[in-house]
Structures are given as C-alpha cells and as structure tokens.
What does this fold into?
Amino acid sequence: MSDAPTPSLGLSPLSRVRLDELLQEMQNRVGDIVTSRERLRALLDAVVGIGTDLDLRSTLQRIVEAACALAGARFGALGVLAPGHDHLSDFVTHGIPPAAHARIGDLPHGRGVLGLLITDPYPVRLPDITRHPHSYGFPPNHPPMHSFLGVPVRTREQIFGNLYLAEKKGAAEFSEDDEEIVVALAAAAGVAIDNARLYEVAQRRQRWLEAAAEITGVLLGTVRRTEALRLIARRAREVAGAELVLVLLHDEENARFTIEVADGADPSCAGMAGRIVGGDFSVLLGGPPYQVLDDLRSAAEWPGPVPAGPALAAPLAGRDMPQGVLIVSQRSDLIADDAILLSTFAGQAALALERARAQEERELLAVLEDRERIARDLHDVVIQRLFATGMQLQAAAAPQAVRPDVAKRINAAVDELDATIRDIRRSIFELRAPIGATFRNELRDTVDDAAATLGFRPDLETSGPVESAVPDDIVPELTAVLREALSNVARHAHATDVRVSVRVAGGELILMVEDNGTGMDPALARGGVVNMAERAGDLGGTFEAGPRTDGSGTLVTWRVPLGTFDS
It folds into this structure.
C-alpha cells in the first residue's frame, strides 16, 4: 500500500499553520467553557448542599467544606465575628484532623492577616501568607500554610464572618477564578446562614413560650414560693443554655439582696441559696425590662462560684415595688435574642412571688376570721353558760338548803368556774390580739436574725397546728433552743446549708435543726448543748444531737409533749 499525499485543500503552508492555531484556540476555549460549566455546576451543587439543613453549626461546616472543594484548597475555616466585630467568637475548620486541632490549642482571635478582613471586609488573595507584613505567625503544631484566599461572608448587609482558604492543591496560589467562585459561594452562604439563624431564633422562642406556658400552669394552682422560683430558674437555664441562673430577692429594710434560688451546671452553686450578696443591685430594680451585665463575676461579691462573661438581669416587678432580680449568664451572641423573652420570665417570677404572698395573706385572713369566730362563740355562748351555771350553784348553796360540807364543795366549784371564765376571757383577748406576734413570726424572726452570723438565711418549714397547739410556756423555751442551735452552727459547723423544721404531730412539738457542716461529737457536748437537753428534760421531753442519716453534718432534734393535745 503506497503512501498517498495529504490533500492540501488549496491552502498554502502558512495558511495551514494559521488554521491549526485557530483550531487549537477553539479547542482551548471549548475546554475553558466545559471547565467553567463544571465549576458552575459544582457551585450550584454546593449552594443547594449548604441549604439542606437549618442547623446553624452544620451549615457553617458545610460552607467550609464546599469552599475547599470549589477552590481546591487543602485547608479551610470560617471565622464568626463577635457582636462587636472586633474579634472572632467561633472558628469552624476543615482539613485539620481533631488530634492536630487539639495540639494547636486555642482558636485564633482574628489578629494578623486574619484580621485584615475584619478591619477591611474585602477579598484578600496572597501567594504566601508568611511574607505578608501583617503576618502574625502560626502557633506551635500548626500545619505549614502559604497560599491564602480570604472572603467576607455577609448576612443582610452585615458581616457575619470570613471564609479563609489555604494551600491551593496543584498550584502555587489561588487564581482569580478561585476568588470569584468563592465570592459567589459566600453570597449564597450568607443567605443560608441567615435562614439557619432565623430558624434557630424561632426554635428558641418556641422553647421559651413552652416553658412560659408550663410556668403559667404552675401559677394557676397552689404556689409555693421557693418551689415556683426553682422551676422558673431551672427552665430559664435549660432554654437559654445558660451556665447559671440566680433569683435575688430584695430586703428593703436592710438594703441588701439575698439569693433565693441558684440553678447552675456546677452542683456547688446550690449552696449559694439563702446567702447574702455583697453588692448593690438597686439600680436594676427601677430600670428597663432588662439590662446587660458585661461581666457577671465582677458585678458583685458572690458567696460562691459564678461564671465570668456577660449576663442578662431583669427586675422582678411586683405590685407595689420591684421585689428582686432574675440573672441569667449568657453567651454574648444570644443576648439580643433572649433579652425580651427573659423579661417575660422575670414577670412570671414576680407573679409567683405575688401569688405566694396573696395566698399567705388569704391563709392569714382565714386564721383571723377563725380566731374571731372562736372568740365570739366563747364570749357569747361558753362564758354565758358557765356564768349561768355558777349562779345556779350559788343559789343552790344557800345555808338553809344544804349541809355545810355540801355548800363548801359547791362554793369551791363556783370558784373554779370563775377561774375558768377568767382564763377564757384571757384567751379571747389573745385571740383578738394582733397577728404579728404569732409563733410562726417568732420563728421567722429567729431564723432571719441568724442570717447575719451564718452569712445566709436558713430554710424554715412548719407543719401542723403550731399556732394553736403550742402552749405559751413552751414558746420561749423552743425559741431559746433554736437560737442556741443556730449559734452553734455559726460558730463551729462551717456549714453552707441549714434547715429548720418545727412541727406538731402525735401530741408532740418537734424541732429539728440540720446542717451540712463538719459535724460534732456528742460525747464532747457542753455549755449550750447541755442547756438545750435540760430545757427538754424540764418539759418532759428529749434531746438528741449527732450526725445526719447520711453520716454528714449534724442533726439536732428537740421534742416535748403537748399534754392531751392530739393532732
């Protein structure tokens, strides 16, 4: 087979060269178009991919991964700006293994070249980041990086953060096409981030509303002040994702604040309940619905551990005046979202206080009405019957009617009736006396007085008919024992929690004082402890002091009989 000459198509050698060049250029342009179409398709896939989930953290991670894939970067990161836009508050990375991440240590704060996009939010493309005059250097154990591309991410015309890419694969630096496609991705990422943030805010608001509905249901029933405030604090911490929630109550008479409830991630914070805060929060009482504390730890002298960082404070606005403050430690980026809803929660806490006070007033009014009814019945019915009986007996005791010994016995009975009438009249006077001098008030005053030496207010619980069943001669004995027990705790126990229980049950008056302090040895009891035992013995009762059932702290039990009373 012979070689046949290739037809020239009538072209000269020079024309054939030009035609080859045109064909090569056309082929190159077709290749560029195919490559651009593939990158455009990849960009569209990335845009669709980053919007598949509304979880904010997952969205940020997918944005970084998509940027690395589109630009061919070995490493990528998305730095989230803090609210003040002066530093980075979060840093989502891709390409660095977790172990290497842990060795690097703290996340960057946005200094050096990374800070260029914070101060001047425009794309930055560098062939070697280490040679830039603003280069801050890398921390130990950080992988080497040279080529760099940075692009700002905007949401609603606000800078949300910056995309950082490093180490272009297969090339010395990132190209203009890389920059353009990452800028386009950043624009789409801003929309996806905004949607994720709106969804997160909506979810948080829903949780706040559900918690508020739960609290409202509690307030519709019988309200126990401390229990309601504990529920409010716990739900506020759960919904806000807070590290600590405090409910401070204002003591206007002594111009101080006491921690009523402390709910936190650290179990030791519960020991702050009942303690006095060394600081003045009065400025928060009459202010706006909420205020931002720049640093909770430095805002006051706290009786226990509190986290550093910002916090929200909302006054508990009562019927007549603010009653306290609700404080929630919070991340700075969530303060704006939670502030208004927290003020609503504070309103519910104030309502719980109002409801508890109203119930106490109703119970007190019922006691007063009952006492008035008893006094009226004693005066109008019992005394009159006793008086009439005495008159009949006196008439029957006439000397001419009975023997002298019988008359003497009748007159003695009349004297007893007179004494009984006097006792009943004294009881009527006491029943109609001001309620402020009640036994319960004496107990509260004793406990309140102990707060000054203990540094916190002990918990007080009363049960049974302590007002009506405890005789007057036992009241001073019990209050003296209570003062001595609390004084011993303050002097020796180093306790952070004290609980006082006074109850009437089974014909006995029982006082229990327990603390979580260092404990005591009953064999070494002397002084005040001996006096407490003698007071119980004088009244026919018993006294015990020793470790609590769990072996920690001290439990003091003082009990005396109440005669024929049966609860």
